[in-house]
Design a protein that fits this description.
Elements lengths: L25 H14 L6 E3 L9 E6 L2 E13 L3 E7 L7 E7 L1 E7 L5 E7 L1 H13 L10 H14 L1
Antiparallel strand pairs: 1-2, 2-3, 3-6, 4-5, 6-7
Length: 161
Amino acid sequence: MAMREIRVVPDPVLRTPCDTVTTIDDRVRGLVADLVDTVDDEGRAGLAANQIGVSLRAFSWNIEGDIGYVLNPRIVELGEEQQDGGEGCLSVPGLWYSTVRANYARVEGINLDGEPITVEGTGIMARCLQHECDHLDGTVYLDRLQKETRRAAMRELRARL
């Protein structure tokens, strides 16, 4: 389909929880194709539908050459072990901050045939699953930062706008 333009903060679509996909039609199939095409670019790990201006619960990933998607994802399990590593976001360009996430995550959703699917992983895949589900809930990774770090990030973001 097409590589789509990425919405950036402070676009309100990024702060609005996304709607559940209720009907899998040509519009949703086109959305998934666009998500997959848009995430298939150097340096991109994940992409939520609202990052391309569509308020539906869907995201794609591109982790170590493995590209996929999920509709109506919800996190069903997070591991107790934490990871603290650098995280960035296409919708917050140029900012990169250490962010604490669970080191394991499991997401359940559906595919384009309406069949249940499970996506899980550790390390960067776990980070991606959490990051993209946050997007679909209207949260950006900056909201997850420690208080002082978040203040610094917001100052930097305002200076860039």
